[in-house]
Amino acid sequence: VEPEISFEGAHLMCETETVALDLYAKLIDILKEVGAYMPGIVLKLSFLSPGRMSMETLTAAEVGRRNVEVLSSRLPQDIGGVMFLSGGHPQDEVLEYLGAVKRQPNKIRNLSFSFARAITNSVRDR
Question: What is the pTM of this model?
Answer without folding.
Answer: 0.88
